[in-house]
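Example record

Each entry pairs one chain with its bound ligand, adenosine-5'-triphosphate.
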Amino acid sequence: MTIARALTIAGSDSGGGAGIQADLKTFTVLNVYGMSALTAITAQNTLGVHGIYNLPMEAVEKQIDAVITDIGVDAVKTGMLSQASIIELVSAKVKQYRLSNLVVDPVMVAKGGARLLEQSAQDALITHLLPLAAVVTPNIPEAEVLTGMTIRNVKEMREAANRIREFGPQTVVVKGGHLSGEAVDVIYDGSTFRELQGARVDTRNTHGTGCTFSAAITAELAKGAKVTDAIAVAKQFITCAIEDSLELGGGHGPTNHWAYGKRRQI
Ligand SMILES: Nc1ncnc2c1ncn2[C@@H]1O[C@H](COP(=O)(O)OP(=O)(O)OP(=O)(O)O)[C@@H](O)[C@H]1O
Ligand SMILES: Cc1ncc(COP(=O)(O)O)c(N)n1
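Structure tokens for the complex follow.
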């Protein structure tokens, strides 16, 4: 039996709703074998981030080398990268192993406001990692940082997607979770703009939506899906996960990673 393999290079969320925990849960539900290279450990729950502990560069490098040289990967995603030096290392590894199915979730700030990427590392993201990405998935605040624009509507999301694509990624998805009204995501592949519509679910349990969405894209790419199909599955996956979100903790609860699989009986 062959099984698709996906690697997440990201931070740990002890609360289990975001970070590598969200990624591995998503890979599993989508029938993909998940692996991880941890960049940082966060002490985190639904109320916020209570501590960040970066791992040594050597530890990040060895984890990536260990899984790729033995098990191999069909797709890779990045989440919390924390520092410029880790971005540079990950970019070098992507080149060294010629990893083509790379999904970059440019995680910068957690919901409660804690920085998950040092401000000085934003340039490294643009210079080193975005040019290597098959797909990059900024939310509205991240797209604003990357472009210097203010984004208030779908027209401005399109403009941002266009500008971010100039940094080199093949496909840009600007996620609309932070705007009001419908949860619309804008996709731009250099020739066509597409919009993925989703009804907005009225819940505060949206911790980990961005991680889960980008992990679902990665899982589908690992199985050989086309980019547009992978993004469409991811949108369905996250909509189900938010609709059936979990009332856990006293703050922003996690999404429900089983929901998509249960509804489709996969
Ligand atoms: N309340 C909601 N109802 C339906 N879909 C949503 C809602 N919030 C976000 N989404 C969808 O979830 C996905 C992730 O988008 P979002 O903008 O929330 O990412 P993010 O900001 O990276 O995540 P987070 O806010 O957890 O850090 C997108 O497809 C977005 O449209
Ligand atoms: C370790 C870690 N990584 C990423 C996020 C952002 O999560 P999201 O944008 O999916 O809510 C987070 N809160 N913690």
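The chain has one domain: 5-258.
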